[in-house]
Structure formats: structure tokens, C-alpha cells
Design a protein that fits this description.
Layout lengths: L4 E4 L2 E4 H36 L15 H8 L4 H27 L5 E3 L15 H4 L2 E4 L2 E8 L7 E3 L4 E3 L2
Antiparallel strand pairs: 1-2, 3-7, 4-5, 5-6
């Protein structure tokens, strides 16, 4: 194999010499980079040695909380107010409906008002003579029926009003 010669100022250069020269340049660059790296590492080691030793370790990166996320995204804005309002409307009517049951669903104890009783003076409690005037089912007084006269079986519906337990 013939070596190729090139004209170089100051003499002739063969390919082998050229390769050697390039290798030397690459080696010099590598050595420079290694020296720079070791210098940076030495500076970091010196800086670390100069710091006083403490028992506190470096804190790990903190986790973001939901509140931090809200600050980034934006807090209670126009859209949130609108959604809240439209979700709140059915709740108002539902609450009124549920609360009405407290007043409308309860059934107060009551009995028929007898024809001879005064509505202003009537009391829910019965005297002995009045007990015989009411219809009894299994020990419970029927609240909407009374007997026409004591000792008879003629039942009548309440047409004079009711007496309520106060």
C-alpha cells in the first residue's frame, strides 16, 4: 500500500502522520475536559467542606396542596358562581317541600265534639259518662265516630267539630 503524500507548508505529510496528529489533538481535548471536570468537582468538594455540619438534612421537594393548585387555576370565579346558583335553586324548593312535612304530616290526637259540649270549653280528656258515648275498637277510641246516646249502637260521624289534645 502506498502512502499518499500531501504538500504541507514546510514539508511533506503522509496520511499516517496526519492521523497521528489528529489523535494527539483529540487526546489533548479529552485531557482538557477531564481537567476542567476535576476542577469543578474539587471546587464543589471544597465548598461542601466549608459549610458547617448540621443535623438537618436537605428537605425533599414539597408536595403541592389542593389550595396551591386552586391559586394556580384560579379561585371562585364567575363560572363557579353560576354553577353554584343553578345547583342551589332545586335545593331551595326541595328543602321547603321537606320542611312542610314537619307541619303538615303530624296528626294531633283528637276526638269528636259531642253535641252538648261547648267548643270553647271542650277538653280532649273524657269523663266517665262521656266514655260510653264513643266507639271503641280494640281498646282504642275511634276519632271520627260517636254514639247517638249512651248504651245505643247508632254511630254518627263528627258533625259538630273536634276536640284536640292540647
Amino acid at each position: 500500500m502506498r502512502e499518499r503524500e500531501e504538500e504541507v507548508p514546510g514539508g511533506k505529510m503522509t496520511e499516517d502522520n496526519k492521523l497521528k496528529e489528529e489523535t494527539e489533538v483529540v487526546d489533548e481535548v479529552d485531557a482538557t475536559h477531564k481537567a476542567e471536570r476535576s476542577l469543578v468537582e474539587d471546587e464543589a468538594a471544597v465548598a461542601q467542606e466549608e459549610q458547617p455540619l448540621t443535623a438537618v438534612a436537605e428537605e425533599p421537594p414539597s408536595k403541592k396542596s389542593f389550595d396551591d393548585l386552586l391559586v394556580v387555576l384560579g379561585e371562585f370565579g364567575r363560572y363557579q358562581r353560576r354553577v353554584y346558583f343553578f345547583l342551589f335553586l332545586p335545593t331551595i324548593f326541595s328543602a321547603m317541600h321537606k320542611l312542610a312535612w314537619v307541619f303538615l304530616g303530624a296528626q294531633a290526637d283528637h276526638r269528636c265534639l259531642l253535641p252538648e259540649e261547648d267548643p270553647e270549653e271542650a277538653d280532649y280528656a273524657l269523663g266517665e259518662e262521656q266514655r260510653d258515648r264513643f266507639v271503641w275498637n280494640n281498646g282504642t277510641m275511634d276519632q271520627c265516630l260517636y254514639l247517638a246516646a249512651a248504651g245505643t249502637r247508632e254511630e254518627r260521624e263528627c258533625d259538630h267539630g273536634y276536640a284536640y289534645d292540647r
